[in-house]
Q: What sequence folds into this?
């Protein structure tokens, strides 16, 4: 696999890290989930040698700037649109997992010429009625995540046999750990601080995160790939699908792709399934 370059663009006065693999168009634009980073896509990207690939670390994540909370979901959409505009992307296939899927949709509404089609992998787009409802679950445990590590290898060994990571491909978990830490003194800290991650979850069903008024504007073909382990308002299950089961029908050219027996971590457990769907959409 070719080593990507790391560059930075400025969005809203913040430095946004962008990993790029050179190659032919149409480009592939990958957007990660809450608490993750661009390099979590490596095992999907490696199946497209010679293809131009762009994968940003959204603000608060990876190598990008990390302003203090609170975080608003529209900010991440601005990051995606800003990257696409400054890199002059045209007719890209936008691929987003979880929050990344939400951000790709709003970015396509902001900058439609940048995208030819969208693949939303279990996107965090709830049933419309859920927005602005009081949350019934407690996500405060996110702030108690262990933040300091001696090395990415220590993080890998601690996670490899624990749920949900035990079900991930080992190479994906390695990418998650290796690029998910930043040096601090003689140790390392999470590249997405727990306070940032918790703030993102807390705002996930805020009224401004409701995209249903924008979705009819998306004229590109959209595939909604979703897991069949359904989200419940009664519990905070990070392995459950936050995607509204009828979401695809709201897009003018939407297609629903239900993966039976899968949970929310589709790209981590079965990167080849995502890669096969992308390959089928490259013209």
A:
């Amino acid at each position: 696999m070719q080593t990507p370059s790391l560059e930075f663009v400025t969005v809203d006065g913040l430095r946004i890290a962008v990993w790029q693999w050179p190659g032919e168009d149409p480009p592939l634009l990958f957007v990660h989930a809450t608490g993750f980073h661009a390099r979590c896509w490596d095992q999907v990207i490696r199946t497209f040698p010679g293809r131009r690939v762009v994968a940003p670390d959204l603000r608060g994540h990876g190598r990008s700037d990390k302003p203090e909370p609170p975080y608003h979901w529209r900010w991440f959409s601005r990051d995606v649109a800003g990257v696409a505009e400054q890199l002059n992307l045209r007719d890209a296939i936008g691929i987003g997992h979880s929050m990344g899927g939400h951000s790709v949709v709003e970015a396509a509404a902001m900058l439609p010429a940048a995208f030819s089609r969208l693949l939303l992998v279990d996107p965090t787009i709830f049933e419309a009625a859920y927005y602005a409802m009081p949350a019934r679950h407690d996500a405060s445990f996110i702030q108690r995540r262990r933040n300091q590590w001696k090395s990415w290898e220590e993080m890998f060994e601690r996670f490899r046999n624990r749920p949900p990571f035990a079900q991930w491909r080992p190479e994906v978990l390695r990418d998650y750990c290796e690029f998910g830490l930043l040096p601090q003194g003689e140790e390392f800290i999470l590249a997405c601080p727990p306070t940032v991650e918790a703030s993102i979850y807390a705002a996930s069903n805020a009224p401004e995160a409701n995209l249903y008024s924008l979705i009819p504007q998306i004229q590109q073909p959209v595939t909604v790939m979703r897991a069949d382990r359904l989200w419940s308002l009664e519990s905070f299950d990070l392995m459950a699908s936050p995607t509204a089961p009828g979401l695809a029908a709201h897009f003018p050219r939407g297609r629903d792709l239900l993966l039976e027996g899968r949970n929310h971590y589709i790209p981590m457990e079965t990167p080849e399934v995502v890669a096969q769907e992308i390959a089928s959409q490259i013209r």
Q: What stands out?
A: The two ends are 22 Å apart (CA to CA).
